Amino acid sequence: MAEKMRLEIVTPYKKVVDTEVDEVTATGKLGEFGVLPGHAPFLTSLKIGELAYKNNGLIEHMALNWGYFEIRDDKIIVLVETAETAAEIDVERAKAALGRAEEALKKLTSEDKQHKIYEAALERAIIRMQVAGKGIRK
Q: Are residue 51 and residue 93 in the same domain, yes or no?
């Protein structure tokens, strides 16, 4: 069994992460999952959520915005709309987005076309604030 996996996280704008890792956890459409070296190949969709990876005892947390996760031959490729490390997240901006989304949702019904857009904005803001509070940990 391999000791490490290669992790690549790519957005439409750039490759955000390209590193060797010991383990990865992410938020899939069906819930949170984790992978270790030697994991069976699979492909899944990701929802707005957190991805964490561990390398040499340090855990890096990231906020992701929709995408896909594939592992094959100890190589993980994550294709997402956006990916931010805890250090990159502007907490005040996330709080402002949270407030805007909450206010908009108060005025909309679930049948309104904009309702799902503001629900996603709310979810993104919450995840971003949670991830920002974690930073890099041992």
A: no
Structural domains counted in the chain? 2
pTM passes above 0.70: yes
Query: pLDDT, tens digit, for every residue of 77-92?
Result: 999 999 998 888 888 8
pLDDT tens column, 20-59: 999 999 999 999 999 999 999 999 999 999 999 999 889 9
Those residues with Cβ within 8 angstroms of residue 27's Cβ, 6 or more apart along the chain or in another chain: 46, 47, 48, 49, 50, 51, 64
Looking at the structure, tell me whether residues 21 and 52 fall in a common domain: yes
Residue 52: domain span: 5-87
Check whether residue 76 and residue 9 sit in a common domain: yes
Vertex 73: Cα angle to 71 and 79 (nearest 5): 30
Strand partners, 53: 24, 60
Q: Residue 85 pairs with which residues in a beta bridge?
A: 62
